[in-house]
Design brief:
The protein is α/β, with parallel strands linked by helices and about 400 residues long. It is about 40% helix and about 15% strand. The chain has 17 helices and 12 strands. Strands 6-5-4-1-2-3-12 form a 7-stranded mixed beta sheet, with helices on both faces. A 3-stranded antiparallel beta sheet has the order 7-8-9. Helix 1 packs across helix 6 and helix 5 packs parallel to helix 7. The model has no long low-confidence stretch (mean pLDDT about 95).
Length: about 400
């Protein structure tokens, strides 16, 4: 946690990954993020993984440092309260549909300088999930050895969209400060995905070649990079990106003469050319497989570290969770009072600011925990009026 965004308040009405991620990142940098949900929790409130008591570990980590207001959004008065909160605050992050009671045009009738950041599936408003968008842009047909498509388990487009949404909100706030103009920013997952493909050269590549990239398994396209197995059975990934790393890798494995022989036969030099190392991987990989298979992992790791060679053994997520360097001794982690009651290291802001004191991560709220506080502060509702709304089941409290 860092206090870089004091005075910025955001209403968030969202579910699942992308939109809550935007709110999380803003909250971690000091914004007041007020998440508004249905009383009892929205559709992601019990999303797996869950504890034995059915508390979502997913939800409580994507919603750290936020405040929670619970409303009955199925009733007109509950929807009107959410609209009023958005207008009173002036910044809104959501993945609700473009049309309806949370449309930007409707909300802006009472707040012309309102900024709305709207996460979407497709640009036409039709629904999509990370896993279906990923299929649409072609990555499962590049992943694995083939021929079957392979879906990856990380919701990459959700996470990229969430980060882009937080950036877009701050950009819109900056514009409003200069011009007084509000507006809506729409962020379809599909556009983030295909735009990223284009930024990585993928669109240009397939149009230039007229063909799809071949399936490479664990090999890295365009570089010398692949998984290898050591003598003691440890599978490790090795990737070379600089001439110095290539020279040090050859030296560490005592492959200078063998690599030189390949260069002589094929009339090439691998010293400074990533593409040639990749193109001639059919001759290089067997040399490295044999050399690595003669060494234990600990021995190789020490040699690689000394030479600045990028490598990492394959591990399970449980292994990673128990790695002191990644978690226990990592300053981004600290304990927090989690609503689930389960104690574990919680992640705070990923960035480190040496000139500022890092504050520990804050817990996620309970559903409706801040309803009374927010309605009084933002809408100036009296305690009596709030009590009436609670008694009527329109407002929930944690």
């Amino acid at each position: 946690m860092y206090n870089l965004l004091p005075g910025l308040s955001v209403i968030e009405a969202s579910s699942f990954v992308a939109s809550p991620t935007a709110g999380l990142y803003l909250a971690q940098f000091g914004a007041e993020v007020i998440r508004v949900d249905q009383i009892g929790g929205g559709p992601d409130f019990r999303r797996w993984p869950v504890t034995e008591n059915n508390d979502s570990l997913y939800w409580e980590n994507l919603n750290r440092a936020k405040k929670s207001v619970a409303l009955d959004l199925g009733r007109p008065e509950g929807r009107e309260l959410l609209q009023a909160l958005v207008r009173a605050t002036g910044q809104f992050v959501t993945n609700f549909p473009v049309k309806g009671f949370l449309s930007h045009d409707l909300l802006a009738e009472g707040r012309p300088d309102l900024i709305t950041i709207r996460v979407m599936g497709w640009a036409d408003g039709s629904p999509a999930l990370d896993y279906t968008v990923n299929n649409s842009v072609g990555y499962p047909m590049l992943t694995g050895a083939g021929p079957e498509p392979v879906n990856h388990v990380l919701p990459a487009w959700d996470l990229l969209t969430g980060a882009y949404a937080a950036f877009a909100l701050l950009a819109a706030v900056q514009r409003r400060a200069a011009t007084g103009d509000g507006g809506e920013v729409r962020l379809p997952l599909s556009d983030v995905a295909i735009g990223t493909v284009a930024n990585m050269g993928g669109i240009a590549e397939v149009l230039y070649s007229g063909a799809n990239r071949p399936r490479l398994g664990n090999a890295v396209y365009g570089l010398f990079g692949r998984d290898f197995t050591t003598r003691d059975g440890q599978r490790t990934m090795i990737v070379v990106v600089t001439p110095r790393q290539w020279a040090n890798l050859i030296a560490a494995l005592d492959l200078g003469d063998a690599v030189a022989a390949v260069e002589a036969v094929r009339g090439v030099s691998f010293a400074k050319n990533d593409g040639l190392r990749f193109t001639h991987r059919d001759a290089l990989y067997p040399l490295f497989e044999r050399a690595i298979a003669r060494r234990d992992h600990a021995d190789l790791a020490a040699a690689f570290d000394a030479g600045g060679i990028v490598h990492s053994p394959y591990r399970t997520m449980l292994d990673a969770a128990n790695d002191p360097a990644l978690v226990a001794d990592n300053p981004i982690f600290a304990d927090a009072a989690n609503p689930s009651g389960f104690a574990y290291p919680a992640a705070g802001a990923f960035a480190t600011i040496p000139q500022a004191d890092r504050q520990p991560p804050r817990p996620a709220p309970r559903n409706g925990e801040h309803s009374e506080e927010v309605l009084a502060a933002r809408l100036s509702l009296s305690s009596g009026e709030i009590a009436r709304l609670i008694d009527a089941g329109i407002v929930g409290v944690g």
